[in-house]
Amino acid sequence: MTWSAAQYLKFEDQRTRPACDLLAAVPDLPDGPVYDLGCGPGNSTALLVERFGAGRVTGIDTAPDMLATAARRLPDCRFLSADLASWEPEAPAALLFANAVFQWVPDTLEVLAWLAERLLPGGVLAVQMPDNLTEPSHAAMRETAAEVRFAPYLADAEKLRTPVPQPRRLFERLAQDGRQVDVWHTVYNHPLPDADAIVEWVKGTGLRPFLDPLPAALVAAFTDAYRERIAQSYPPMTDGRVLLRFPRLFLTVRRME
């Protein structure tokens, strides 16, 4: 998939808020490296730098445009290109921080369990994942993809995103060897100018698996058909704005002393 830092950052404040909330749940940490997994354009990395200092923080991503943007934003940080499905920290970590990335990683639960074993005593794995596959914003993607003109290109589009593990499975898999696990949901309600703004929002993330496989001649047609569904599903409020409901799952795993 292609990832655009400029598209993603159109909604930087709203996208960074869950990262702030996740970081607020991270307790005092031991000395050691801090990793921003799926760092994107560096908006979440900047939060880590403010708290822990640039010298401790490394950003990890696969998208060249995201990494280049993050490096320009935070020139004193280290940024590396790596696939989180197989990446391993160079040394046990004080913090593995992942804001809105593991929904794209296959075998999410097993990867999280593997990472939880690579923490220092007192270290924390902190994860936030969108839990919005059943929301109208994403149901409309699947409905549009099923149209005859698009279906031949999009048979596998929805398979590229991993469903968020259920809380019970997270506890059962991760709360082992004395690890302390916390899981919670937060539902954000984002007031946006109109239905077009919702389309622009998901163009930066969830819509990528549906747009990228299409021939260039069909991208505009798909986007228009999707926009029509979004306008029906998100009617304007009395002030003309629309409200985007956005559930997110949060997880912290702490390795006890």
Largest sheet: 7 strands, mixed
- The low-confidence parts are none
Spatial ordering of strands, largest sheet: 3-2-1-4-5-7-6
Q: Estimate the strand proportion.
A: 15-25%
Total count of strands = 7
How many structural domains are formed by the residues? 1
Q: How helical, in percent, are the residues?
A: 25-40%
Mean pLDDT: 94
The CATH level-2 architecture is identified as 3-Layer(aba) Sandwich
CATH topology (level 3) name: Rossmann fold
H/E element string? HHEHEHEEHEHHEHHHE
Our Rg estimate from Cα atoms comes to 19 Å
The CATH class, by name, is Alpha Beta
Class by SSE composition: alpha/beta
How far apart, in Å, are the first and last alpha carbons?
Answer: 40 Å
CATH superfamily: Vaccinia Virus protein VP39
Discrete helix count: 10
Global geometry: globular
Question: What does this protein structure show overall?
Answer:
- Strands 3-2-1-4-5-7-6 form a seven-stranded mixed sheet, sandwiched between helices.
- Helix 2 packs parallel to helix 3 (43-52), helix 5 (108-116) runs parallel beside helix 7 (167-174) and helix 6 (136-145) crosses helix 10.
- The chain has 257 residues and is of the alpha/beta class.
- It has one domain: Rossmann fold.
- It has ten helices and seven strands.
